[in-house]
Amino acid sequence: MRFLVIGAGAIGTYLGVSLAHSGHEVTFLVRPATAAHLRTHGLSLRQKDEVWRLPRPQTALSVPEALAAGPYDAALLALKTYHTAGFLRALTGQEDAFPPVVCLQNGVDAEARLSQVLGPAKVLAATVTTAVARRSKHEAEVSKARGVGLAAGHPLSRRLAAAFHQAGLRPRLYPHAAAMKWSKLLTNLLSNATSAILGLPPGAIYDHPGLLRLEVRQMQEALAVMAAQNLPVVNLPGAPVRWLGWSVRRLPWPVLRRALPPLLRSGRGDKMPSFHLDLHSGRGQTEVDALHGAVVRHGAAWGVPTPVNAFLAQTLHTLARGDLPRETFRHKPQALLQALAQSAPAD
To answer: In which order are the strands placed within the sheet that holds 74-77?
Structure first.
């Protein structure tokens, strides 16, 4: 197959290099500075004891240039969600010529935004559970190979699954795209905002009873929003999300306090999550609006209160904008919990 990979960050590198290594044709749509860097250094993916390298990856610097190098069977959208608006603006006038888009972004709203521009028939929902980190502008590393979820039922679904399987990406088809994306959102919520706000690794959050309760409360809110929409929690490749959802809803606190931390550590480890990396990158923006913000928006639409997610989203927004000093809550769990108690008292 021929692929246009939009973005060459951790996920774009993981997908693009894997597909190219297995014989598929891949072009990366990137910014000019990134293209210049890749022309000099190539693009590499490290996993276990192997390094797959594209010494001269094919790049395009704009949508018209990318389309001129086509046609493509599919475009793989691997941008951060806060770059989606810019990407959609770049599509203006090119919508009919653009290939179907496989949306691998976090959150639950990107597919709807893409469908408004391209039409629903040209959008396929997907998610990545493999843990990938960007080591430099030209290298990414897989730390936990889990897999990729793809929405079933699209004309491209089975072809994509076959290509992804050939590339070692461990695909799994899902009949309910929204359940897949919301289940992935549940995993993205865990210790993401709290780690960024507090400057603490996930393990320290799970070891703190008050912070663990905070994590449980935000998960319970998201699960309530899913329930209002009649969306089931589904297991994702390498991620037992159904057990996580069941335990958060059903287990009494003394049992949950013992059972949950080992499960959460096995999933994320002590790697600082994406919100922390974005907060300290100097970009002034994070994906919190696509995750906690989505829980709040959909909760409001379905009449489900989501005060903990609203508090976390607002706090991280103010930190990212610089309206709140980063030292306000840095390494201060009790200060954060007191602020939460004032904003969103527990039942």
So the answer is: 58-60, 25-29, 2-6, 74-77, 101-103, 123-128, 148-151, 171-174
Measured distance CA(240)–CA(302) in Å, rounded: 26
Would strands 50-54 and 139-144 be described as parallel, antiparallel, or unpaired? unpaired
pTM equals 0.93
Locate CATH 3.40.50.720 in the chain: 2-175
Positions of CATH 1.10.1040.10 in the chain: 181-343
As a whole number, the mean pLDDT across the chain is 93
C-alpha to C-alpha distance for 156 and 138, rounded to whole angstroms: 29
Asked if 299 and 309 count as a contact pair (C-beta separation under 8 A), the reply is: yes
Q: Which superfamily, per CATH, for 2-175?
A: NAD(P)-binding Rossmann-like Domain (3.40.50.720)
Beta-strand runs (E) in 145-210: 148-151, 171-174
- The torsion angles phi and psi of 38, rounded to 5 degrees, stand at -70, -30
Condensed to tens digits (0 to 9), the pLDDT of residues 129-162 reads 999 988 888 899 998 999 999 999 999 999 999 9
Rounded Cα gap, residues 274 and 20, in angstroms: 26
What is the rounded CA–CA span in Å between residue 239 and residue 116?
31
Look up tokens 């891949």; give the residue: 26
Residues 6+ apart with CB under 8 A from 95: 117, 118, 119
Q: What is the pLDDT of residues 166-204, one digit of tens each?
A: 999 999 999 999 999 999 999 999 988 999 899 999 889
Helix (H, G, I), strand (E, B) or coil at 4: strand
Largest interatomic CA distance in the chain:
60
Q: CA–CA separation, 343 vs 338, rounded Å?
A: 9
**Per CATH, is 181-343 categorized as 1.10.1040.10?**
yes
Residues 6+ apart with CB under 8 A from 258: none
